[in-house]
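Review session, final week

We close the course with one last complete record, chosen because it touches almost every idea we covered. It is Holliday junction branch migration complex subunit RuvA, a protein from Cerasibacillus terrae with 203 residues. Go through it on your own first, then we will talk.
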Amino acid sequence: MIAYISGELKYIQDESIIIEVGGIGYEVICPNPFAFQTQLNEKIKVYTYQHIREDAQILYGFKNQDEKYLFIKLISVSGIGPKGAIGIMSNINIEEFVTAIEQEDAKYLTNFPGVGKKTSRQIILDLKGKLTSLFSLSTNDAKTTAKDIIGATDGYNEAKEALKALGYTEKEIKQVFAIVQKEDVHDTDMIIRKSLALFAKNN
């Protein structure tokens, strides 16, 4: 198994990055490839999980060991494969995610793509108590935390639809969201304003 790749980041695509090592370009699928955009043409280290199928060998990559560990735990849940796990992790806050599992907050979990009521209950059943040893829980009040988590997810979803209506592409939106999320912004209007400011700056 390939545990990690260390090489030059050559390309960033909608769902993956290309890392060159010894003249060979490795395509690595990531939860948010644009999180690496500030490191383009620089040497980076990506922690990887190698998924082997009969018809393909696929590399999934993560910025740190925590993300990789969570991915491995997610694909251990009945009904969640690598593609589904990547979809869940594309907008995840690990501390909040673990908090929701420990609080058995199935409603929060259904905010992620591909996660319905059945899958959310399975995540809680399979992962409750298994992540707290490595990941910290949010220290906020339980009810407030759950409300804030759902609001944050909805905020980005609503902002994305508004930006699409203005003519921006999914790729462009992902690029700016990767920057906005680092500022811990959750309000829909603020997300839109900051995103538009970044679009204007890049033009």
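Two points worth writing down before the exam:
The CA atoms of residues 92 and 189 lie 20 Å apart.
Strands lie at 4-12, 16-21, 24-29, 43-52, 57-62.
Good luck, everyone.
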